[in-house]
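Practice set, problem 2.
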Amino acid sequence: MVAGSFYIPKSNKAPLGEDAHFIYIEEEAIGVADGIGCWAKKDRRVVIRDGVIVYKSEIQKKGFNYPFQLGNGVKFDDPSVAHEIKVTVRTGDMIVMDTDGLFDNAHNIEFEKLACDGLADLHELGTFSKILARKIEEYALQNSESKSIYTPFAIDCLKVGKDGVGGKSDDITVIGV
């Protein structure tokens, strides 16, 4: 497994945002968590094969923009609500794990294009994952700052009767494998 990551904290969070991630090469394990004062489960995993998303996990949430909030206090969700997800992958598959900063700001087709364009830039396998993670993250950041595009988050807002134009400012964490 070759993996790389990139993280952009939301600009108004001091000092370094609230997302966390890990890459454990020896055990072939990766993980991300979106923090909102406690650890929240609002991340997503995607497997891309031959330029097409073949698996995309669902966001575990209670309602619109309201993820499970894992913790050990009375006002938090018990960690037992977390799901362990196992997905079979093949040699050559790309795995991307991210918090909602990416998936709220990039549509599936945009995400597939970014991943395929990243393959065209492949020169060294050891740096590819980090370069791809950075490229995807910078795209999501640009969309998050827009006030005029229809991002996935904007569309979800419209579905629940809220103002739905523009990106969603948030921490953005991407792990590419």
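Problem 2, part (b): a different protein.
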Amino acid sequence: MGIAILAHCMFLCSPCDVNPHSKFFVDIAPDKKPLDWSTRMKIASGATKGLEYLRDKDNPPVTYRDLKASNILPDEQFNPKLSDFGLAKIGTVGDVNVSSRVIGTYGYCAPEYAKTGKLTLKSDAQPYFRDPKRFPELADPSLQGDFPAKGLNQAVAIAAMCLQEEASVRPLITDVVIALGFLSNN
């Protein structure tokens, strides 16, 4: 990952995969076994670490703004890379709101960003239900119930925290990394 600054323009540069436009799940044939729970948690945890790096460790920080399954490209060992940085916003700092034209995939952006066009430290935590008895209905049917109930409950709890309408009650991306890291190791 790098940034080039030339004549008042900034370019975000990232390594290119062999086929950067592929969507991983298209490559899984219908007659093949779907990804298991552990692999899915590994991908989710790794993608969240990528968001954390962009937001908290990269300088200047980057708000990704387009997190969705088709923009997460796992390699052969299912280590994910974020792709499609065309909507990324470079240079947002702290809880200072930066006005910006609202862009991204509707339904994958934080409500405060969709309503006001302002980004916060918690804007990237949004894209990640209330009756625990119904949680299994949220799981991919192709798993055919082959997932740990406790792990699913924890994943749903993490998602519910990230989906809070108010940014002030959503977790920081660092907290989501820790929680998903725990799930991917168990």
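Answer key, part (b): The chain has one domain: 35-184. The domain at 35-184 is CATH 1.10.510.10 (Transferase(Phosphotransferase); domain 1).
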